[in-house]
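Internal ticket #5521
Category: modeling
Description: The requester needs a full-assembly model to guide mutagenesis choices. All entity lines are attached below as received. Residue total reported by intake: 1510.
Assigned to: D.W.
Attached entities:
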Amino acid sequence: MNPAPSIIFFTVASGAGYGLLFWMGLLRPLGLVPQTAGFGVLTVGIALALTMLGLLSSTAHLGRPERAWRALSQWRSSWLSREGICAIATFAPAGLFFLALAGQSEWLALPTGLLAAAGAAVTVWCTGMIYASLPTIRQWHHPLVAPGYLLFGAFSGAALLATLAAFWGAAMAPAAIAAVLGAVAFVLKRAYWASVDAGPPLATMETATGLGFIGKVRVLDPPHTETNYLLREMAFRIGRVHAAKLRRIASVAGFAVPAALLLLALLTGGAFAGVFAVAAAALVTVGLLAERWLMFAEATHTVALYYGAGEHAP
Amino acid sequence: MPADGGATDRIVYSAPIGDEVKTTTCYMCACRCGIRVHLKDGRVRYIEGNPDHPVNRGVLCGKGSAGIMTQYSPARLQAPLKRVGPRGSGEYAEISWDEALETATGWLKHIRETDPKRLALFTGRDQSQSLTGFWAAQFGTPNFAAHGGFCSVNMAAGGLYTIGGSFWEFGEPDWERAKYLMIFGVAEDHDSNPIKIGLASMKKRGAKIVSVNPVRTGYSAISDEWVGIRPGTDGLFIMALIHELIRTDKVDGEFLVRYTNAPWLVVRNPGGADDGLFARDADGKPLAWDRARGAIAADTADLSPVLVGEFTLPDGRVAKPVFNLMAERYLGEEYAPEAVAERCGFSAERIRRLAAEIADVAFNQTITLDIPWTDVWGRKHETMVGRPVAFHAMRGISAHSNGFHTCRALHLLQMILGAVDTPGSWRYKSPFPRPIPPGPGPAGKGAKPNTPLAGNILSFTHGPDDLLVEDDGTPLRIDHSFSWEAPLGLHGMMHTVIGHAAKGDPYKIDTLFMFMANMAWNSAMNPLETIDCLTQQDENGDYVIPHVIYSDAYFSETVPYADLILPDTTYLERWDAISILDRPIGSAHGPGDAIRQPVVEPDRNVRQFQTVLIELGARLGLPAFVKEDGSPRFKDYPDYLTNHQRTPGVGPLAGWRGEDGSKKGVGEPNPNQLQRYIENGCFWRHHLAPEESYFKHANATYLANSKAMGMQGQSNQIVLQIWSEPLQKFRLAAEGHGTKQPPEALRERVRTYCDPLPFWYAPLEQQQHDTEPFPLSAVTQRPMAMYHSWGSMNAWLRQIHGSNKLYMSRERAAADGLAQDDWVWVESRSGRVKAQLTLMEGVNRDTVWTWNAIGKRAGAWMLSPDAAESQRGFLLNHVISEWLPSQAGPRLANADPVTGQAAWYDLRVKVTKVAPGEEGVTAPHPDVLEPPPDMPDPPDILRFNAGGQKP
Amino acid sequence: MTSLPAPSAKKLGLVIDLDTCVGCQACATNCKEWNTSGHMAPLPDHHPYSAGVEGVWFNRVHSYEAGDGEDGRTVHFPRSCLHCETPACVTVCPTGASYKRAEDGIVLVNTDICIGCQLCAWACPYGAREFDEDQGVMKKCTLCVDRIYNEHIPEERRVPACVSTCPANARHFGDLGDPDSDVSKLVAERGGMELMPELGYKPVNRYLPPRRAPKPDAGPPKDAGPLPSQITNPLLRWVDKVLSR
């Protein structure tokens, strides 16, 4: 699949934003993050900015962004519709949460924070399910995809939270959470890759054309000599060497190293913790961009089979 | 509850397609299908096949269905132009029609008053040759032809000199009844939709289709068996089949005796002036050897001939029946399956098996129709018995320098099987069959100033006396057709005109006048050499071809090389006749013809070529185009179509003749004739009665009715010619007999190739150069969506074929170290082209091929210079040579030595990987062409919508 | 609603005969010319006269080779919307623009409300969705919904444009929900195939597989006549053969 920058940015940014919101909503009542208005406004503000930027970015992918509101109607069947509804619905408690923190209204901050956290989790789950629900792309139609979205969002949110909290000298809890999530993310992603690498293609040129009973099927001529929308969108191919390199960047630089840095931050504390946390958050961002890019680039769509651009059996 | 998109979707289920529908005839290729053009607010909304039309019966192919984009292309020429810069520069000034016609008249008048043959009128893919040829004769120049010599004259000549009909236009398989069809060299080819309809119906019936073709695409793809032959060896394969059939005694002796010249006696007198001619009686009738009566006229009704033996005639001469000579030749070891197998590229067993299959269907699965009919001897037959084996062949056979004999061999095969115009076999399309050969010799001798030539310019030589040559053998025609170089050059040799004109061989011309012929690109065998000729200047700086007039509707590669451009209309803006005098749309079911009518008004300052030609004729005072007072006889082309009479009562259109429109074929002009055509969907057809439907060459009812309708001048039996006496006459001349003698340099060539019986020889080009370094045959095929058209101005079709690759056998590529998508040089003895490789399974191992006419010159057709057509498209033509390898004697065309057919399939090449850094763009890549002035800017997004419901 | 309607009894669709399709592209261009002024008008073409020309087409014809060497076959393969019974392209649509008709099973897009998210294109395994980048909305084969019920068209031609124009009779239209329809019978007779049935979309359109001619015997048939060695001079047989007209 074509790794469209708007979608990559959208999913990474909104994942981090919702992750941040989730952890703020959850950790603040527990007193595990700084309780000051300044920290609250900054953190939830960044979370809201990231989710909003993400949403805006996603509309860049639309052919008719002015009609985006129509996407809210089909919640009964469409994960995209559900995502939109959840995202918008989450803005209500998140906005109130922001105001409550700014106004130091603790009575409002608790329920709105928890509701925002719940909304964030559901929204990211929906995002994951948009991909996981597509039977045409086996790398997406996989049980680890939606949990992965949730996990990576939570991880990047926690890392971001730890970075921010480090400036208040209180990164312990989010750093600990992020370190654990980073390790889990590393394992999950590795497990996912192992699983998709071992999995057979959904279909072959032989089944896509029904001509397998004659023998091996090869393309003689494409329908048109120039490329087309489907090929650009869905027949994106990435070299194996290149993919392996990006996988290492995503899993090591994006998950393992940040987890270790956050662990170091826990151990060192103080100013060092801040440095480690900032470095971790930066690496997470790079890693997740790589992970998301790969998520698209390595995904194979059955339509590519008709153009002879299908994946080869492992 | 969320709203359903369907609840609010505005679907208009039952809107009229347009506000008007008009019928006409398609011209996106040569197939001539009937179309219905739906118009909305004066724009073309939808073009569909006309369900009532006999050619396409409602279907329409990929090209015809894309006609809208041809109609509205930005490459349409806008107004008459005169050249103001050097040829090729694209510097033009727009001029008025008056100035354009005056200029042309000035040039042409001078020529006509001094030396008419200095005008060469060549008309490409013209469908109005009955007008253009007639105009040329009226002008007085023998230098006229269309593109048949480039295309398929081998098929036409091979057929017309053998069975009095031919494949495609003059014959078709019995699609309803054939049980076995073998097609040779038919990719997407003449004729398009009827073949598709026919193949589908045959497959539905479970008939077997065998395709003999180096490449497995198109029709070969759906055939039941693909025979991946090496190009140029079809004749060997066919003669091996004949060998097998004679050897195994699978021969329809009765058919041969009744309908062919198999029993005719051929004089055996080696060295004598009568050697190889038919023994004739005092009345000139050919003789046969009757079992009881000895030598008697071969047309005797109760003849019981002996087919084998040597007989002494009453006058003491010795003679042998044609059958005997034929059998001797094909039983020869050189035509045994074992001898030909390797060369053809498949096993001897396979040849024997195919021969046996054919024989089985022909002789064990005969078809009997309970239709009584009467033969030319007046005998009634209760049934029509047929041998349901049909053949069809096209350019894969035609475009070789051995194509004429190969085609004749195929007709011999049909005759041996008794499979000519019988139920289930190949059938004549009316008005064929015609006498063999069909007409008198070609006009062109004695051209004089201000004097029309009598007769048809493109006609039929019967022997040396009909050749258009000076006493010393020098050709009279600029293209050398009907000379000793191409004695049966029925369609002219468009491919040699420009080369000969530039060289002044045999003389200089003044004006080259062309219509619809992309001679500076894909219609030339070698485009760059042709461009050299068009731009060549003499020592004074004058062009060696002083004037070039060109009429085309589009900005093709040829436009920049003309001095005067006469912009033509599109096919939807014009009148035309698919004329009974030329190449009508008759079928096995009866004769027919058709018209085109304008369905949209031109929105440019353009005029249809035929109307312009008629006006030029009047301005020049050509007798048939002016009244006695010198005023124009015809207002325009439709006026000509209605009122022109070639002979009394016979005009361009056969339907609704006579003042009240009640006559067919022959009758006075009918002022409402075109209207009657329009009312009938723009076509006319006459249905043959069942008793006329088969054995037309010997069917008394058919022949009498055909004569009565003016389709031919006689109603005698048309005896199919195994042994071709006209060819033998040329051979005798080459052996020194007669007054008309070939030049010494050509004597041996004429003697060899004017063989009265078909034989196989390696293509001339391959005989004359070392093919060792060039191991691969290279051919082209037309893709279905671009068949018989070359314009990349069509925004839809160019999406389907915007560039082309070189196809090669996967196995061969592996052996040669080549891989998919490699960039390669394709090199022949005369040049090289660069292309990208693609590999396939279904191609002869020793053959490479590509789609033809996809590569375009940068800038032409109003395509941007970076368009795929010029960047990744290529023409194989660049490595084809117009001339045979140089040798002693005259420069000779790379063509069939009998018919002059361009031999563009004889090409041999080698394929090697390009040097690093050479990949990416095809070569050669001549300079970008500049468009003429005032062409519209092509849009960057095309949103064609003629009346859609959701604009 | 983009939830699917209850399965319709009527399942209009196409049956495409890969045995006779010659790859002429008639279905593709006739579809284009009908539909560019039809229900989903226009079908735009980007860079129509320059590099990278690319247009919206509802019907595209591929060419494949199946099998190796002479034993293989070249197959032309028209590809368009299969009007699936359980099309995910419909259920993923967030706006309801993509819908399947309850009355005849045709899958359509309401371009008035489509937002161009293109998720339906991702959800279609067969590549039937065509994005109009000019208008920013998704388009697709309508099964010529503006032809098949059109009373201005003679009844026998009230079929999709691709079907009415096909010169090789390789396209058939009808109700695949009715086991007695001509198309259903054709499918039953010829073993009509579903494409990628394993994906569970239940395509309505069917493809008739290329027929494989039985492999001919290698050698000549038994009655092929005398062997070369048995004939000294085949011509001699003709000397005494009595032939008459």
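Resolution: model delivered.
Comment from assignee: Residues 5-307 of chain A form a domain with the Formate dehydrogenase/DMSO reductase fold fold (CATH 1.20.1630).
Ticket closed.
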